[in-house]
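--- STAGE predict ---
source: upstream dedup step, 1 unique chain passed
mode: sequence only
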Amino acid sequence: MKQSKIIMVGGWSLILFTFLYIGTQVYLKVFFNYPDVLHGPDKDVIPVFLSGGLHLAIMLTLLSLLPLLLVPGSIGAYYAFKEESEGSMLLALIFAMIAILGFILCLMRWPSVNWYIALTYVQANDAERVVLSGLLLSLNTYLGTYLGGFLTSVCSSIWFFSYQCCHVAFTWFSKMDWLHGNNSRYLFINRTAR
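--- STAGE serialize ---
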């Protein structure tokens, strides 16, 4: 009974994440030209980025916190299939948590660290701007490209692959049980409806 509630909450959190993430991305694209506003030379990007003001910072913060909805989703997926393949689902859960952390850190850099660097950049002289540009480049390369782009993508792929392997095996065995007259197993959708 308790596990079915965890599975249900996990499923709904994944659905909620999907709609909120897409909605936030569309909103940011329409009103702030995100993510294009963040690409280009620092002297062009920073004034446009800061012109979004506190409203842009709040929206980027909201966007960066949305991956927290993936935590109950990945836990729900774990409980949905742990009986069939606990090892695969534990592996999926571990990589899901790493991916979620990387996702949050990647998205959080703009409304936090980069925001204050941009505020300092506007008031800095040319020599200080060179140093701040180097700092922005290194943060964006590390947090955006390596952590956000590479690590998060690899961990998410392993998470989804492990989940799919378990789901395919479970579905196949469920069909085989049905052919043999054993209706004791259900598909993932039936598990969430219990």
